[in-house]
């Protein structure tokens, strides 16, 4: 009989989202007519900006004309988009990234989930705790995580992040091969200072590790002193791969476009005492397993770099940032500890001592008809917190704030 990849059977079920949905449904049934507002969603709600829609329309027309029709595109992405990314996201900020070092894709989730394929099966992986679950689960599928005992994968190195270390992970006692860092962070909404990120780049260079740097939320950074890209740190080109997405930057969660930056000078061991460039390996992987992000979507992504596209996208991000600031203030007025929410669309709230994250979830649902995400779902260290998101429509966020204020 055929046998499955048994690593898939080791995966934990997504108890968090199943259980929150069940509780919300039960509340709705018991309270018909009561409007439930979700502050739990990790998806944008504002429509695509006009510059993106215009670019989509134009690209659709091109695809309908024999003279302009395009079939398979380059697996790495069209040159027009890679050049726009290199120019606007990197070179304009003084960062030396070549268009050839950029690989366009249909999402950072798949890039982050797939990238681990490039590392040996016995590599040790480090993640922060709490964490965006994709990093862990994709390594579980690859058989790299070991046994699951007491809420922890035995071969994964956890880097706890909490109030005691100001959400800045300490270097692990055991040297990992691959370190996933996500800043601005999902779920905590916190950021790393330049000095803290420099520490991690230096650590990776010293110890011979690779950093997989997820900066899907860099567009939310409001302070020039906080690094938007890991390549702002000297030496990062030798140790870091950067993942970015148009999802939360420009509302592309449904359209799908993202990219990975792999510097050509980044090398890892070849298992025989020599070194090999990760860039060439990812190129080979993509050419084998991927046929490129759609032309019309890449034209839409290019449009966010035009002067009007930039302006329109910034307005939408500003709206989410205002939601986050107002939500954070309302929660603080409830006497609770609030983290994140300034350089990120996520607010990480310490729940009061007399309850846990599920208890606080129940309290918000039953007293204010508001839905949050219990922090325990993002890792053992997420217990004691809930995550709120600022992606709601402004009117829903205002109503949520009014309900929160009524609780004070
Ligand atoms: N990285 C982080 C930290 C995220 O929170 C998300 C989406 O929620 C992604 C990556 C995925 O982005 P994409 O929509 O490009 O797949």
SSE map:
Elements: H1 7-10, H2 15-30, E1 37-38, H3 50-63, H4 79-90, E2 102-105, H5 108-115, E3 125-129, H6 134-141, E4 148-149, E5 152-153, E6 156-160, E7 178-182, H7 194-207, E8 210-214, E9 240-245, H8 247-250, E10 258-261, E11 267-269, E12 275-277, H9 278-289, H10 295-302, H11 307-333, E13 337-340, E14 346-350, H12 357-368, E15 370-371, E16 373-374, E17 385-389, H13 394-407
Parallel strand pairs: 1-15, 3-6, 3-7, 7-8, 8-9
Antiparallel strand pairs: 2-10, 4-5, 9-10, 11-12, 13-14, 14-17, 16-17
Helix pairs in contact: 3-10, 4-10, 5-6, 11-13
Give a short overview:
This protein has helices spanning 7-10, 15-30, 50-63, 79-90, 108-115, 134-141, 194-207, 247-250, 278-289, 295-302, 307-333, 357-368, 394-407; strands at residues 37-38, 102-105, 125-129, 148-149, 152-153, 156-160, 178-182, 210-214, 240-245, 258-261, 267-269, 275-277, 337-340, 346-350, 370-371, 373-374, 385-389.
User: How many angstroms does the end-to-end distance come to?
Assistant: 61 Å
Approximate shape: globular
Radius of gyration: 22 Å
> How much helical structure, as a percent, in the residues?
25-40%
DSSP summary: helix tally: 13
Mean pLDDT score, rounded? 95
Briefly note the CATH topology name of the largest domain: Aspartate Aminotransferase, domain 2
CATH architecture designation of the largest domain: 3-Layer(aba) Sandwich
Find the CATH superfamily of the largest domain.
Type I PLP-dependent aspartate aminotransferase-like (Major domain)
Runs with pLDDT <50, length 5+? none
Bound molecules: pyridoxal-5'-phosphate
- Helices and strands, in N-to-C order? HHEHHEHEHEEEEHEEHEEEHHHEEHEEEH
Strand content: 15-25%
Going across the biggest sheet, name each strand in turn: 2-10-9-8-7-3-6
The total number of structural domains is 2
Compute the number of strand runs: 17
Structural class assignment: alpha/beta
Q: Determine and state the CATH class of the largest domain.
A: Alpha Beta
Q: Biggest β-sheet, characterized? A: 7 strands, mixed
């Amino acid at each position: 009989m055929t046998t499955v990849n048994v690593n898939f059977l080791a995966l934990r079920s997504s108890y968090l989202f199943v259980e929150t949905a069940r509780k919300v449904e039960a509340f709705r049934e018991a309270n018909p007519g009561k409007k439930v507002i979700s502050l739990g969603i990790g998806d944008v709600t504002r429509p695509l900006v006009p510059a993106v829609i215009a670019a989509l329309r134009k690209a659709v027309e091109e695809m309908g004309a024999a003279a302009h029709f395009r079939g398979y595109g380059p697996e790495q992405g069209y040159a027009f988009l890679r050049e726009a990314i290199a120019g606007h996201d990197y070179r304009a900020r003084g960062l030396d990234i070549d268009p050839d070092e950029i690989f366009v894709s249909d999402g950072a989730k798949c890039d982050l989930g797939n990238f681990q394929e490039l590392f040996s099966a016995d590599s040790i992986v480090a993640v922060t705790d709490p964490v965006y679950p994709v990093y862990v689960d994709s390594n579980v599928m690859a058989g790299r995580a070991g046994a699951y005992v007491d809420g922890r994968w035995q071969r994964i190195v956890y880097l706890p992040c909490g109030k005691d270390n100001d959400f800045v992970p300490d270097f692990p006692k055991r040297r990992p091969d691959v370190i996933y860092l996500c800043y601005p962070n999902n779920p905590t909404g916190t950021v790393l200072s330049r000095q803290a990120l420099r520490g991690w780049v230096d650590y990776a260079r010293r110890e011979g590790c690779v950093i997989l740097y997820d900066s899907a939320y860099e567009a939310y950074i409001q302070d020039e002193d906080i690094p938007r890209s890991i390549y702002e740190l000297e030496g990062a080109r030798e140790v870091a791969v950067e993942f970015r997405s148009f999802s939360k930057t420009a509302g592309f969660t449904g359209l799908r476009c993202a990219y990975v930056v792999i510097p050509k000078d980044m090398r890892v061991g070849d298992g025989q005492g020599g070194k090999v460039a990760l860039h060439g390996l990812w190129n080979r992987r993509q050419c084998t397993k991927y046929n490129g992000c759609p032309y019309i979507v890449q034209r839409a992504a290019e449009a966010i770099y035009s002067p009007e596209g930039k302006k329109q996208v910034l307005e939408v991000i500003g709206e989410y940032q205002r939601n986050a600031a107002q939500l954070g203030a309302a929660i603080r007025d409830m006497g609770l500890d609030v983290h994140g929410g300034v350089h990120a669309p996520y607010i990480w709230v310490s729940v009061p001592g007399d309850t846990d994250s599920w208890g606080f979830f129940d309290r918000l649902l039953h007293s204010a008809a508001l839905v949050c995400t219990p922090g325990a779902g993002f890792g053992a260290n997420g217990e004691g917190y809930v995550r709120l998101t600022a992606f709601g429509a402004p009117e829903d966020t205002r109503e949520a704030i009014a309900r929160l204020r009524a609780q004070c």
